[in-house]
From TrEMBL:
Species: Escallonia herrerae
Any Pfam family hit: C1_2
Protein name listed in UniProt: DC1 domain-containing protein
Keyword Repeat: yes
SUPFAM superfamilies linked: Cysteine-rich domain
């Protein structure tokens, strides 16, 4: 069926569905008459991208309307007019009385209901004649403007902008296309996914864009890319490697890089290694063992490592160089033996913190105010305020760099504003941690200290810290090998990576 319409120079051809560029069934586009989404039969131009709803293309040229009985109204095309009925500005098609300078948009003028069949709802949706301030059932936000309503359900309303959302989009910060879903797919609802852009809760039955391969979700209102200042694009916050900056995560659970960074920041990292040391925390002299120059019957070998022997200060497995008491089993890493006795720390700027030995209370345990975990090692404490930090938290600076967020520095925050990107916990004590001033990335203090690799006594291979789901790995494959509970693939986990014999595939086990 061919139509020569007054609004277009080329003939228009009738079509049942809109052909996609790649041969698919349908492609989202808008009517050039009413500027609303087309989801049913239409007329289109074969030479250019001009489309009209079937109803818009077949509108009568002249009508008589009860709201303007004096003269007939003529259909015409205009660049911008204000409807004298609903007082809204409209473009393209409308009816006009040139004698009275009276204008009416085609929605107000049309005596018929131009309904659309939208895939998000089981019933046809009817355009509402007037604008209103309502809460949209698609994006769960309030909008002022035009609406589609389900007259069967009555309470179901979709804003015109949401009704026109494309089925897929591509964001520059994500390598896969994002698919529009009218609710969170059931296979991903167990862990209550958060929006990966604003880090806020997603309603189960609100519309989302998502990537199933990466378990990436976003509100439809967050999906359009934000405008980034030119300076932010061409002047990244982190350039090169700074020897005075703390880079996390630590290499492994034995790493004392956090403590070493404190000593370097205080100018204490280059002390000579005293062969014998009297430390304030112990009554006996401590002897230095350096595997590069020393060997002993108790600690033989140049690659000394024993996970059963822990440093009394940081409670981490002992690695050389270290100090040991020749009369008892008291052991200190060299860097822990050189910790300052007084410290001004950003977590507690009101007072200086004093280096304390093991707590006499609760069997040597104390609650660290930095990470919220109990510790039985040394502490930096303010006795008056009853404020205590373990050695690792006490060694943290006010600004860090983390591998999981390479582009920006992370700054200490007294109270995190949202859930932690590592564990997704947004409640509990304490809320101190590190956050990005440019975006919404935040980490608990404890989570920022997770090691990059660790060994488990029941596995011969190292486990690697993973920050995001492994591509093409199904959701039901994420189970902890220890407790056999399903894991949230969007949260950090320790995974085993074993290269198979053909050298082309990788086998992963989650912990």
């Amino acid at each position: 069926m061919e139509l020569q319409h007054f609004s277009h120079k080329h003939p228009l051809f009738f079509r049942e569905i809109i052909p996609n560029e790649d041969g698919g069934d349908e492609k989202a586009c808008c009517c050039n008459g009413c500027l609303e989404v087309i989801s049913s039969a239409y007329y289109g131009c074969s030479q250019c991208e001009f489309f009209l709803h079937k109803l818009c293309a077949e509108l009568p040229q002249v009508i008589e309307h009860p709201l303007h009985p004096e003269h007939p109204l003529t259909l015409h095309k205009a660049s911008s007019r204000v409807c004298d009925v609903c007082d809204n500005r409209w473009r393209n098609f409308g009816y006009r009385c040139s004698e009275c300078n009276f204008d009416m948009d085609i929605i107000c003028a049309s005596a018929m209901e131009r309904k659309i069949d939208h895939p998000s709802h089981e019933h046809p949706l009817t355009p509402v004649r007037r604008t209103a301030l309502l809460r949209c059932d698609a994006c769960c936000q309030e909008h002022q403007g035009r609406w589609y309503q389900c007259t069967t359900c009555v309470h179901f309303w979709i804003h015109r902008d949401c009704a026109s959302l494309p089925s897929t989009i591509q964001r520059s910060d994500h390598k896969h296309p994002l698919t529009l879903s009218y609710s969170i797919p059931s296979q991903y609802t167990k862990f209550d996914p958060l929006c990966d852009i604003c880090r806020k809760r997603l309603r189960r039955f609100s519309w989302v864009y998502y990537c199933g391969k990466c378990r990436y979700f976003t509100h439809v209102t967050c999906a359009p890319p934000k405008i980034v200042p030119l300076m932010s694009i061409h002047s990244p916050e982190i350039e090169g490697h700074d020897s005075n900056r703390l880079y996390l995560p630590p290499d492994d659970i034995n790493s004392v890089s956090v403590i070493n960074s404190l000593l370097e920041g205080l100018g204490l990292g280059e002390n000579e290694r005293a062969i014998e040391l009297n430390h304030i925390s112990h009554d006996h002299p401590l002897i230095l063992f350096d595997v590069q120059t020393e060997e002993s019957e108790s600690y033989p070998g140049k690659n000394f490592k024993n996970d059963d022997i822990l440093c009394e200060a940081c409670v981490k497995p002992v690695i050389s160089p270290f100090y040991k008491c020749s009369l008892c089993n008291f052991v200190l890493h060299k860097c822990c033996a050189e910790l300052p006795t007084k410290l001004q720390h950003p977590f507690h700027p009101q007072h200086q913190l004093i280096l304390l030995g093991k707590s006499p209370k609760w069997w040597g345990l104390f609650l660290c105010d930095g990470c919220g975990h109990f510790c039985n090692g040394f502490s930096f404490g303010c006795v008056d305020c009853e404020y205590y930090l373990d050695v690792s938290c006490g060694s943290l600076p006010s600004t860090i760099t983390h591998e999981a967020h390479r582009d920006h520095l992370l700054h200490f925050k007294e109270n995190l504003s949202g859930p932690c990107n590592a564990c997704a916990s947004g409640i509990g004590f304490p809320r101190r941690g590190f956050g990005c001033n440019t975006c919404d990335f935040e980490l608990h203090t404890f989570c920022s200290l997770f090691p990059r690799t660790l060994r488990h006594r029941y596995d011969e291979h190292s486990l690697i810290l993973t920050y995001s789901p492994v591509e093409d790995r199904e959701a039901d494959e994420y189970y902890c090998e220890i407790c056999e509970e399903e894991m949230n693939p969007r949260l950090w986990s320790m995974m085993e990576c074993i290269l198979l014999e053909d050298g082309e595939d990788t086998h992963l086990e989650a912990y």
